[in-house]
Amino acid sequence: RFCVSSSMKFKVSRDLGAPQALVWTHFMDFARFETDMRRQGATLARVGDWTEATKDVEWRGAVTLGGKSNPLAAKITQLVAPRAYTIDSQIGGMVCHYEISLVSLSETVTRVALVLNLSAKTETARIFLMTLKLTRGLVLQRLEQMLVRQGSAAETEWQHRKGG
């Protein structure tokens, strides 16, 4: 039997041409995130039908990984507006720690950094994590695309507000 590390970390960042407060609003748009998840086949529901994202709000549902449906539980465990939030979740035997942080580089430029830590609690999750390690570049590309999508929306809104 061979030993495989049971954790993995992904980091991506992007500088956006919009003020921090506006970027924060876009990265706190969980309705958009939920819609993206559903498009990818996940079922997702807010626990308690909350309308405003605050510390300790939760989601429950299921997501398909490796062709198998897995239960999903997620919770905002830290929220420091307008600088950072953390979502901790469990998908089957995989524990996920997702951090978004924003740093104002100037009045109109904001750096967004995303860190995703994954760790496996079961043998099935370890095998899935091994697959992710083999496709690390693809995972990073998807995370970067997510930053680009949300960031572009903030930049476009900023351009419209400035009148250009």
Portion in helices: 25-40%
Q: How is the biggest beta sheet arranged?
A: 7 strands, antiparallel
Number of discrete helical segments: 4
Give the mean pLDDT: 93
| Order of secondary-structure elements | EHHEEEEEEHH
Oligomer category? single chain
Structural class comes to alpha+beta
Shape: globular
What is the strand content? 35-45%
Q: In what order do the strands lie side by side in the largest sheet?
A: 1-7-6-5-4-3-2
How far is the N terminus from the C terminus? 61 Å
What's the count of strands? 7
Low-confidence stretches: none
Calculate Rg over CA atoms.
17 Å
How does this structure look, described?
The structure is a single chain. The protein is α+β, with helices and mostly antiparallel strands and 164 residues long. It has four helices and seven strands. The chain has helices spanning 20-27, 30-39, 123-134, 136-162, and strands at residues 7-16, 43-47, 58-65, 68-80, 84-91, 94-106, 109-120. A seven-stranded antiparallel β-sheet has the order 1-7-6-5-4-3-2. The longest helix has 27 residues, at 136-162. The mean pLDDT is 93.
